[in-house]
TrEMBL record, chains A, B:
Annotated keywords: Aminotransferase, Pyridoxal phosphate, Transferase
Organism: endosymbiont of Escarpia spicata
Cofactor: pyridoxal 5'-phosphate
Name assigned to this protein: LL-diaminopimelate aminotransferase
GO biological process: lysine biosynthetic process via diaminopimelate
Molecular-function GO terms, alphabetical: L,L-diaminopimelate aminotransferase activity; pyridoxal phosphate binding
Matching Pfam families: Aminotran_1_2
Length: 406, 406
């Protein structure tokens, strides 16, 4: 008899964004005349940079001829892209990352969900709260938790991010093995200073722990004193993996390309305490279960690092940050306490009450879709997240409707 | 202390195709003047069908404008593609599969590697031998095996495919829960009749087992009496999942698109014996750990089902089958016993001795790269696989060199 992975039965409710989609569909059906403005899911809305479009067309033309056709590529990604990433995203900022430490993939969601597979099932996992649901759910599926109780899974160590600690979690009070961090943070928009990250690096080194650092939003960092990569922090290369994506920088949410940095100096341990290379483990997993990213898409990602690509991406980021600034100003003018929106496309807003209630109120009265903070964890209760990913015109319209309604 | 998934330590050697690549690189460095002809890894060599190229360009143009841009798509794939697949690949052949039973993905390797995640760790797994290494390796990683001993993992039930049984494994003698099957087979090129598949379906129904059916090579079936999908067999929709790919049909190895069919009637069981929907489990896994396939690539896959696309794909398949026929004829004329090559792009050749030895002999004396059967399992020892994926000119040249050398 084929039995299921019973851990799936522990999973609470369905995936956050599916819930939102259902409520939006129901609202649209009931109110066909009201236009919906989506500031919920963090999905970009503007066209791909022209440099990427040109690279895509050129690569598609290569695929049209036997002589220039590309079949299977290296599972880890083509050297042209890995080298462009290492140089453009790390070496240029003083972080000593080599091309062969880059694993190109089809999404940071996939990587941040899959990476835990290479570690022991009994690893103690620390996860911030509020948080991107994928970190939690994938560890539940893998059997690293007990049952859910009062909105939290037994066995996980939750790292509370609250107004009191400025949305930067304190170090855990009990020993943990695997630590998820995300800065600029999704959903709070909070950023960590170099000193704050250094404390986590020191903790990981002292405890032989490993940090999975999600830097999907690094391009939004405008304050030069803030780190954009964890590898700007001394000692990180022994204890930290970094997830990156082209989704939010170059608008690749529907084009699909991301990467994970796994330094060769990064170590985990066998049961008997011997060092084991995390790079070798991930390479084995990646080459066995993945077959690389579409060739034209890798060429498009490479184009992000051209001078034109860099200028176009910067323009996109600035555009969304202008939206973010506007949203934060408007919500603050309405008396709402806000976090984020300065070095992040997300504004985390104190709902002054229940978060799904404010979500429903905004949806029903204004047609504006945000994300209820409760969907991101217990500490997200009482907040909503508004995303800056939309046109400035739509953001203005949304804020005008909200001003009228609240 | 972050401990590794110790199951990774059970994995034997490195991935088959990496080993081959290393030997080829060494040979090339030692013999820079000899041209290499690759008939090893099953990678297509001919350009994408024109219908796909046109669809890719058109979709890239959509991505170039805010108004037609596509961000995140549905994790399961766009309806336009799921509907084209259900209609074109199943309903048109009398198999009653609905669009919402199709999960679009970036590769059959990923799907066939990931699918086991939703089942219990103590499931007893039956895997053919010889076999595509991903089925075995991913179950080792998941902890469903003991240590390797004499080239086999303890705890797995191996289904021997030998000359004696015509490379169609017998039903297992001990109860199993999860069964991997692949027809047309990789690596042997063997095909199963409807009656042969029916026996497996009946076994699965009688034992509440589940079949994971890999049909990546179905387009090569020319004999109309042979099934191209397991869903042509009565009763299969309760006990079988099917993996499909555009890689070998439309040449998508470097473009990346595949899909998995999970009928809603397919059931697994909880520890207490209650039915659980495999569709619901896979949907949860797929939406949590995957974010769909690149939009332009989905449009290219859709174009495969247009009248032009279908004609162009048929032309590609016929081209490779002409190669396959030629390889088989030539090897048989040299006195080698062959399987496959008629309804399959692979020819499975009795090496009349050690399979790595014949691999090395062909590489060193002729520059032709094949795949040693031993890389596919114990029963692969004594065979080599030659792939028909190359130009007819290269295949002719390879066979001419082999004739001279052997």
């Amino acid at each position: 008899m084929i039995k299921i992975n019973e851990n799936y039965n522990k999973l609470q409710a369905s995936y956050l964004f599916s819930d939102i989609a259902k409520r939006v569909t129901a609202h649209t059906e009931a109110n066909p005349d009201q236009s919906i403005i989506r500031l919920g899911i963090g999905d970009v809305t503007r066209a791909l940079p022209d440099a990427c479009i040109k690279a895509l067309h050129a690569a598609v033309d290569e695929m049209a001829n036997d002589g220039s056709f590309h079949g299977y590529g290296p599972e880890q990604g083509y050297d042209f892209l890995r080298e462009a990433i290492a140089k453009g995203d790390f070496q240029s900022r003083g972080a000593d990352i080599e091309a062969d430490e880059i694993f190109v993939s089809d999404g940071a969601k996939c990587d941040s969900g899959n990476f835990q597979e290479i570690f022991a099932t009994d690893a103690t996992v620390a996860i911030p709260d509020p948080v991107y649901p994928v970190y939690v759910d994938t560890n539940v599926m893998a059997g690293r938790t007990g049952e859910a109780k009062d909105g939290r899974y037994e066995g996980l160590v939750y790292l509370d991010a609250t107004k009191e600690n400025g949305f930067i979690p304190d170090l855990p009070k009990t020993p943990v093995d695997l630590i998820y961090l995300c800065f600029p943070n999704n959903p709070t928009g909070a950023t960590a200073t170099k000193a704050q990250l250094k404390a986590w690096i020191d903790y990981a080194r002292d405890n032989k722990a490993l940090i999975l650092f999600d830097a999907a939003y690094e391009a939004f960092v405008q304050d030069d004193s803030l780190p954009r990569s964890i590898y700007e922090i001394e000692g990180s290369k022994e204890v930290a993996i970094e997830f990156r994506s082209f989704s939010k920088t170059a608008g690749f949410t529907g084009t699909r390309c991301a990467y994970t940095v796994v330094p060769k100096t990064c170590m985990a341990y066998t049961e008997s305490g011997e060092k084991a290379s995390v790079h070798a483990l991930w390479n084995r997993r990646h080459t066995t279960k993945f077959n690389s990213v579409s060739y034209p898409v890798q060429r498009a990602a490479e184009a992000v690092f051209s001078p034109e690509g860099q200028a176009q991406v910067q323009e996109l980021v600035s555009y969304y940050l202008k939206n973010a600034k506007y949203i934060r100003e408007q919500m603050e003018s309405l008396g709402y306490d806000c976090m984020g929106g300065e070095n992040s496309p997300y504004i985390w807003i104190d709902a002054k009450g229940d978060s799904w209630e404010l979500f429903d109120k905004l949806l029903n009265n204004t047609g504006v879709v945000c994300t209820p903070g409760a969907g991101f964890g217990k500490c997200g209760e009482g907040y909503i997240r508004i995303s800056a990913f939309n046109s400035f015109e739509n953001v203005q319209e949304a804020m005008s409707r909200i001003k009228d309604a609240l």
